[in-house]
Design goal:
Strand order of the largest sheet: 1-2-4-3-5-6-7-8-9-10
Shape: globular
Number of strands: 20
Strand content: 25-35%
Radius of gyration: 23 Å
Largest sheet: 10 strands, mixed
Distance between the termini: 27 Å
Helix content: 10-25%
Number of helices: 11
Length: 468
């Protein structure tokens, strides 16, 4: 990440900024430990522009899970060179900070409030309340929840994060167990608080009340109508942790100045930074220039921007991009056991660019306690590439009499080339589609059997594709 970020710094810092003048983008960088009210030390790095005595606007930067403040060092340097005070820090239980990590619980939110409201003004020449916040993944969730709890920020920017953690990780009440276990593994168990250590058991046993309570305390969607500051949502086109619906719902709920940028970055199967990183940083700097520093030359941006798969072009919209539904009837009846799978196929004659959540409807019956159904949608291209378009799962309560089961897949934007073959796999785990597909790992009961009949697959797609 640092290499790619460094490559674009020179171009970006030459962009004009409506900030106080300072000598050639010079800044001081200092490492300090901020002591919280419970005695835990939070490791910080402060980037302070060299000015002629003027105070400066500031931005707090929030890193991702299992990372540290160094993850955002290049962005902090970019902001400091542009005239902002930048503050990075390690969440407790991360990096050089002490304490135990509770998965963004009340303790971490108190840390954020203390850093913003007392520590930062006492340690840097901040220009009044001109303080913004930028967070990636975990950090984005922290930014949104902190603002909802009342921590004062002038403007927010969140990248590839959630607004409803339960919907993201337990869609349709079925945990995305593999993704959850992977995220939990990002923090050593000896640095996890008890509420975090209890999660694996809750996931394996599908303890919905525990998972729902944990997620609600760390979500922001229900708070976004409370007068949030201007917020720019950056959401990934293909992100199986935090799908499009997370940024879209946040953007829809937000009542004030807001923007939504969807680009080719994110968690697996994407990566961050993406190929459009220079453009993302341009949008980010302009947002802070206007809403934190007070620049008056406001860029005339559309409400929603959608970048192509390659990141080389961007289409703007007044609202969400218009879509149309593509429906595939996949007939047949098959009975499988716990380790089996049902595969249905269809052809895609023309280029298809999905946008939104595909759905699978199937008539299912079981008299042996089949507990849940997982669906994985793959596109096999004419060149032989396998694209996992989306996947999802849902609990089932079945009898010998057929019942309609609906599985909503993760909301994505995926380019499917013309002539591709769609392949839909229905099973008890995502590994049935491919042993390397680790999103849904908890199996159905070993002796269970299920009969699946007449599948209907519905894919929302852009009326006019933006990727070629």
């Amino acid at each position: 990440m640092k290499a790619l970020l460094a490559a674009v710094l020179a171009a970006l810092i030459l962009a004009p900024a409506a900030l106080a003048s300072h000598p050639a983008g010079l800044y001081r960088q200092t490492d300090q430990v901020a002591t919280m009210d419970d005695g835990v030390g939070i490791a910080t790095t402060l980037y302070t522009p060299v000015t002629h005595g003027e105070k400066s606007p500031a931005v707090m930067l929030f890193h991702g899970l299992g990372q540290g403040r160094q993850q955002l060092d290049p962005v902090a340097r970019l902001l400091a060179q542009r005239g902002y005070i930048a503050l990075t820090f390690d969440f407790r239980g991360h990096g050089q900070s002490g304490g135990l990590f509770s998965g963004l619980g009340a303790r971490e939110l108190l840390d954020v409030a203390r850093l913003r409201e007392s520590w930062l003004p006492a340690n840097a020449p901040v220009d009044g309340d001109k303080v913004g916040a930028l967070g990636i993944s975990l950090g984005g969730g922290a930014v949104l929840r902190s603002a909802g709890e009342g921590t004062p920020f002038r403007a927010l920017e969140v990248i590839e994060t959630w607004t409803d953690l339960y919907q993201a990780f337990v869609p349709q009440d079925l945990p995305k167990s593999g993704a959850i276990f992977q995220f939990l593994g990002g923090v050593p168990t000896n640095r996890q608080a008890p509420e975090l250590l209890a999660l694996p058991a809750a996931v394996s046993s599908r303890d919905v009340p525990t998972l729902r309570a944990f997620s609600h305390a760390r979500s922001s969607r229900h708070l976004l109508g409370r007068g949030y500051p201007p917020t720019l949502f950056f959401q990934g086109r293909r992100d199986f942790a935090f799908g499009l619906e997370q940024g879209i719902a946040g953007w829809q709920r937000h009542a004030g100045p807001k923007g939504l940028y969807v680009g080719p970055f994110g968690h697996s199967p994407s990566r961050f930074p993406g190929p459009d990183f220079e453009l993302v940083m341009q949008r980010a700097l302009q947002w802070f220039d206007v809403h934190v520093a007070g620049a008056t030359d406001t860029p005339n941006r559309p409400a929603v921007e959608l970048a192509s798969e390659s990141g080389t072009s961007v289409q703007g919209y007044a609202g969400l991009p218009p879509t149309t539904r593509h429906v595939y009837s996949l007939r047949g009846s098959t009975t499988i056991g716990a380790s089996g799978k049902v595969v249905r196929r269809a052809r895609v004659p023309q280029l298809l660019e999905t946008f939104g959540a595909p759905t699978v409807q199937v008539r299912a019956s079981s008299a042996t306690g089949w507990s849940h159904l997982v669906a994985v949608l793959v596109a096999r291209t004419p060149s032989g590439q396998e694209i996992v378009v989306s996947e999802g799962g849902a609990p089932t309560s079945l009898t010998a009499r057929p019942k309609l089961v609906t599985v909503r897949l993760i909301s994505q934007a995926t380019r499917i080339p013309a002539g591709s073959r769609l392949e839909l796999t229905l099973a008890g785990t995502s590994t049935a589609q491919n042993l390397g597909n680790l999103l849904y790992l908890v199996p159905v009961p070993q002796r269970a059997r299920i009969t699946l009949r007449n599948v209907k697959l519905t894919i929302p797609a852009l009326r006019t594709p933006v990727s070629r």
